[in-house]
């Protein structure tokens, strides 16, 4: 039985972890099972790729617009990667939470750390691989990265894995079905009406 959405309190759930750990797959499965949950859309200064639409894939901004948003504190977190800015717009997240919705935010570790400062009530969940060896297999299994890119991702993952204890919860994605059910339990325990 679905929880009563009018009495449940809204919440921000931050999912983070190294590249290749399965964050995107878990988010996709969560939204299939709970279509009433809201996936936060990031803002970026990079150009749209084929098929991407403003406001659906990303909010596409100029660098000047993005810098204005930073100055006006319109972002919960932001970072610069490969010459482009990426960040989480504050207003849509706060609007959904005010309506009692669960908001999912899938971001990198650096951004997830910032969220602790800008949105202290967020529940931050770190997704872990069963081992570094399994993570390497997953990255190679994608077939989309060069050896150099895989080596960089693995080096980055080693650093990020050391940060797992900083987060509210740690969840090992060793079995997708089990990890999904554990994740749903973690999210729903924080979305119960308050007496």
From TrEMBL:
Localization in the cell: Cytoplasm
Record-annotated Guanylate kinase-like domain positions: 10-188
Record-linked InterPro entries: GK/Ca_channel_bsu, Guanylate_kin-like_dom, Guanylate_kinase, Guanylate_kinase_CS, P-loop_NTPase
Enzyme class: transferase
A Pfam family this chain is assigned to: Guanylate_kin
Main localization category: cytoplasm
Protein name: Guanylate kinase
Organism name: Synechocystis salina LEGE 00031
């Amino acid at each position: 039985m679905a929880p009563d959405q009018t009495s449940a309190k809204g919440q921000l759930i931050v999912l983070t972890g190294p590249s290749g750990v399965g964050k995107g797959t878990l988010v996709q499965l969560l939204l299939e099972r709970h279509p009433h949950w809201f996936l936060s859309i990031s803002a970026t200064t990079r150009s749209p790729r084929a098929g991407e639409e403003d406001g659906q894939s990303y909010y596409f901004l100029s660098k000047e617009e993005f810098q204005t948003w930073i100055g006006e504190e319109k972002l919960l977190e932001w970072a610069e990667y490969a010459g482009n800015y990426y960040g989480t717009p504050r207003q849509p997240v706060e609007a959904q939470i005010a309506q009692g919705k669960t908001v999912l935010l899938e971001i990198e570790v650096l951004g997830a750390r910032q969220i602790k400062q800008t949105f202290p009530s967020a529940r931050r969940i770190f997704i872990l691989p069963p081992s570094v060896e399994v993570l390497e297999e997953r990255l190679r299994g994608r077939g989309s990265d060069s050896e150099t890119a895989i080596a960089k991702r693995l080096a980055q993952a080693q650093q990020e894995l050391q940060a797992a204890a900083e987060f509210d919860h740690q969840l090992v994605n060793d079995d997708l079905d089990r990890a999904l059910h554990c994740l749903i339990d973690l999210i729903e325990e924080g979305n119960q009406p308050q007496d």
